[in-house]
Amino acid sequence: MRKFNLAVVWLILSAAMGGNASKAAIKPADTAHFYTKHSYDVLKYKLDINLYQCYQSPYPKAFTAMEDVTFMVDSALSFIQLNANTASMDIDSVSLAGTSFTHLTNILTVNLDRAYQHGEIVNVRIFYRHKNTNDHGFYASSGFVFTDSPPEGARKWVPCWDRPSDKATWELNAKVPLNVRLGSTGRLADSTISGDTIRYHWVSEIPVSTYLISFTSSVNYLIRSLYWHTLANPSDSIPIRIYHKANESLAVIDATILPLTTFFAEKFGDYPFEKIGFATLNGSFPWGGMENQTMVNLMPGGYSDANLIAHEHSHQWFADLITCGTWADIWLNEGFRTYCQNLWLEHSAGFEAYKSSMNTLANYYLSHNPGWSLYHPEWAIQTPDGNTLYNEAISYNKGACVLFQLRYVLGDSVFFQLMHDYATDTNLMYKNVYTQDFVEKADQISGQNLDWFFNEWVYGPNHPVYQNTVAIDSIGESLWRVSLQITQTQINAEFFKMPVEVRIRFQDATDTIVQVVNDVNYQNFDFTFSKRPVSFEFDPYRNILLKQAATVVNAPNPFKDATFVSYEVASERMVTISVLDSNGNMLNRPVNSMHLPGLYRLEWANPGLSPGNYFLKMEAGDFTDTKKILLIR
Q1: What domains are defined for the chain?
Q2: Which residues, 6 or more positions from 360, have their beta carbon under 8 angstroms from its beta carbon?
Q3: What angle do CA 17, 156, 189 make, to 5 degrees?
Q4: Read out DSSP for 199-243?
Q5: Please, which of 49, 103, 418, 585 could form a disulfide with 91 given CB 3.0 to 4.6 Å?
Q6: What is the DSSP string of 520-548?
Q7: For range 324-352, the mean pLDDT
Q8: Phi, psi of 448 (to 5 degrees)
Q9: Cα–Cα distance for residue pair 322/428, rounded to 1 Å
Q10: CB of 482 within 8 A of CB of 529?
Q11: Could you tell me whether strands 187-194 and 197-208 are parallel, antiparallel, or unpaired per DSSP bridges?
Q12: Cβ distance 429 to 405 under 8 Å?
């Protein structure tokens, strides 16, 4: 889901429905399943809804509905609680012999006719009315009627257990005017015309989380039909249904959707559902897109945005097929889809386009980082507001960049095997997943213990800040030594262990790439060469996207006629380089200006100074470094 700047207050489950443990008791390793359990397991939602009046001016948001909730008892109980917003709906009655109910503070409590035991299956029928209110869950305007439920908005238009962890099957019977086309989650079982009315019957036998259930409809929608042939059985096809208005251009989605589906299927396994559905909505839709299971909603004009289409379509694997178990695991949805969108860019436009886009994501993160981790354990208990949960810098951009860096650490072969095996693991498919599931799968596929990687990049906040120094010295007999010290100076995060590449260029215009593992702070590395190095780059291909870095290179030392200083600036800042004598007196200041991000080189010729020791002092923001240089005859 692509988030626009929308102020939304999301309703939080009460302690009785979500657990009441203190924050201090929550650790990344033990939140995974504890807070997803409740006293019953919803098996099916079946909704019969009358939307007939909603398509005509003044486009009321009121409707009547009957819902069957079928559930299995997990532990002995005599009542159940469902999320049902009191501001959005009135409950008229609940049908089960001997039952009573209360509807208070957004909770529908149904007192059952008796005490039920573990394993028993119960069906409760609820008759209710949606109020004519703007609740940002049910929308009706200008002939469009649709729902939008993330993260916990389904409770605004249908009573339910509105957490991502309890998937259930879905059945919808919707009454609409004859000129309305309506799509929903799953497959169209049938449609029946009676006079000026049509009833659509949609069924999803594949379980779905409540925030991914939807229906989308409009007066005079047109439906473009295509078919995608599965990889496992090319004679079998998946229907593609594109709901659109008469004047919309479909050129981009027509050209994109078939090769895009094939690409994702090759990477992550065959398309996992019974149909591929898209619909563009009107200006009331608050997002760029929403990945409802088998029925993606897009903003007006969304069919012309290939990146948005790729973004939402990849969610059918990462969010819908395997769905985050708690909101603490939201990066498994949004970080993965952001990275998959860029994988498609790499495939369709080339590596440079992919890398440029990933750099842009990382730069946005570095400029907007709020300072929290990808995995936020409290979110498993208490759902944050929408702008926090769907924070672009963290849930989307940092999540995608972490996958980029994992690809660098593992290499392409292992990384893509991991992504494929994670998405096709039968223990995870069509179920809820947790961050620890992905960590365990990464360990299994790589044959390594990757706790160090996930602890620093997922469970820990922020990123490394490197302040490196390099000296290039002649050591006699036509040998040269490059001495590197890697220093991390961040104070808001632990040390980040990472493999690091460095590039050394030589006087003969050749270069070499050397990789080292930086696993302690203030770590020194020496490299000896039989030809003269003239420049040095730290992480030249920016494989560590999430970092700030400054590197100062002093060379040659000792020198006779001239020396130089190479330095890297990671973000716009003031840079000053001063030349000092042996007593610390400033002789001159050859650099004193604002610098844009990039690599720089200062050539400094001997201005007639006497042989001896001198100092070069560099200041850039919080970074200060002084190097001794020796002038010889």
Answers
A1: 10-36+332-461 (1.10.390.10), 38-215 (2.60.40.1730), 221-324 (3.30.2010.30), 465-631 (2.60.40.2550)
A2: none
A3: 105
A4: EEEEEEEEEE-GGG--EEEEET-EEEEEEEE-SS-TTSEEEEEEE
A5: 103
A6: STTEEEEEEESS-EEEEEESTT--S-S-E
A7: 97
A8: -125, 165
A9: 6
A10: yes
A11: antiparallel
A12: no
Reply yes or no on whether the pLDDT at 19 is more than 70.
no
Cβ count within 10 A of residue 605: 10
Residue among 134, 160, 133 at smallest CA distance from 46: 160
Beta carbons within 10 angstroms of residue 623's beta carbon: 23
Whether the CB-CB separation of 597 and 571 falls below 8 Å is answered with yes
Token duo for residue 555: 């060379």
DSSP state for residue 252 in the 8-state scheme: H
Q: Which of 198-212, 278-292, 509-523, 579-593 has the lowest average pLDDT?
A: 579-593
How is residue 243 written in tokens?
Answer: 């709901």
> pLDDT of 295-331, one tens digit each?
999 999 999 999 999 999 999 999 999 999 999 999 9
Cβ neighbours of residue 624 closer than 8 Å, sequence gap 6 or more: 617, 618
Sign of CA dihedral 11, 12, 13, 15: negative
Q: Please identify which residue in the block is written with the tokens 């591929």.
A: 276
pLDDT grade, residue 616 (50/70/90)? Answer: confident
How many residues can be counted in the chain? Answer: 633
**C-beta separation of 179 from 247 below 8 A:** no
Query: At residue 262, does pLDDT exceed 90?
Result: yes
pLDDT single digits (tens) 428-461:
999 999 999 999 999 999 999 999 999 999 999 9
SS (H, E, C) 338-403: HHHHHHHHHHHHCHHHHHHHHHHHHHHHHHHCCCCCCCCHHHHCCCCCHHHHCCHHHHHHHHHHHH
Placement of tokens 């399943």 in the chain: 33
Neighbours of 81 (CB within 10 A): 20
The number of helix segments (H) and strand segments (E) in the chain equals 11, 35
Residue with tokens 């993606």: 296
Q: Which amino acid is at 350?
A: G
Per-residue pLDDT at 362 exceeds 80:
yes
User: Distance (Å, rounded) from C-alpha 453 to C-alpha 402?
Assistant: 9
CA distance 629 to 619: 17
Query: Using an 8 Å Cβ cutoff, are 441 and 410 in contact?
Result: no
Cβ contacts of 310 within 8 Å, gap of 6 or more: 256, 260, 340, 341, 344, 345
Which amino acid type is present at position 240? I
Q: Which two tokens stand for residue 206?
A: 């594949």
Alpha-carbon gap, residue 243 to 241, rounded angstroms: 6
Q: What are phi and psi of 443, to 5 degrees?
A: -60, -45
Q: Smallest Cα–Cα separation from 231: which of 261, 186, 273?
A: 261
DSSP string, 92-160: EEEESTT-EEEEETTEEEEEEEEEE-TT-EEEEEEEEEE-S---SSEEEETTEEEE--TTTTGGGTS-B
- Residue found under tokens 């207050």: 9
Of 288, 372, 361, 376, whose CA–CA distance to 329 is shortest? 376
Helices (H), 28-88: 31-34
Strands 287-290 and 2-3: antiparallel
What H or E segment, with its residue span, contains residue 575? strand 573-580
Is the per-residue pLDDT at 34 higher than 90? Answer: no
- Judged by DSSP in three states, 500 sits in strand
How many angstroms separate the CA atoms of 106 and 93, rounded?
A: 16
Q: Please give the backbone phi and psi of residue 352, each rounded to the nearest 5 degrees, phi first.
A: -65, -40
Q: Which token pair is 177? A: 């005017």
